[in-house]
Amino acid sequence: MSLPAIVSREEWLSARVQLLAREKELTRQLDALNADRRRLPMVRMDKDYRFDGPQGTVRLRDMFGDSRQLVLQHVMFDPAWEDACPGCTGGLDEVNDGLLRHLAARQTAFVAVSRAPLAKLQNYADRRGWTFPWYSSGGSDFNYDFGVTLDPAVAPIHHNYRDEHELRASSQSHLADGGVHELSGMSCFLRDGDEVFHTYSTFGRGTEQIGGTYGFLDMTALGRQEDWEEPKGRNETVLPPAPFFEDVAPSPTRVSAVEILSKSAPCC
Fold it and tell me: Is the model's pLDDT at 135 over the cut of 60?
């Protein structure tokens, strides 16, 4: 087993400071990238997709509830399978009630969608102890249109912004072998009244860094909704730069985190 070199505290500190400079540079680059993501144009969702949920048939608009944004996870679950993809399962195990509350506090709903029938989704969710909304897209074009189910007998194949020709020439040439493939990803939608718009999708390793509330919000058009973000004017209400999401009413002995942060210098 190869372990890091053993050095003095001074040598370690020197190396750590050098790495810190690179980390800060990457943080600024990510800030700029996230701002450019929020500046992406959007596409009106004109097709009337229908999904099966615990309360019956729903449309994409219904998945928002009262939220302005929707983060939708494309979960690999073929109708013939009894279990969802192990990789998708690992990620969904981390979608807890706290994350859902924090997203909701920033006007954002979370759902999962798979092609397997609702009964299988509910059975698997019960076995895993999941409580987030999970809908079946079976019987609709949704998975095919978003490139997360590939079946040339149903629709021209495309995935991760590559068509069949580009897939054949890539390291994912197996996706163009003529078979049926289930794939994962994340898509984000924005609601203006009852109109729904597609703002962003990412696939493959693009989903690796998504974790915790900020990771989800950074994919969306409204972002973290904090006062330092660009572009300005995107949100009617902005917050100080801090991961504070609870909407608990303050008690006489509780000082609001927002109040504390408003008097503090920004970090980093």
Answer: yes
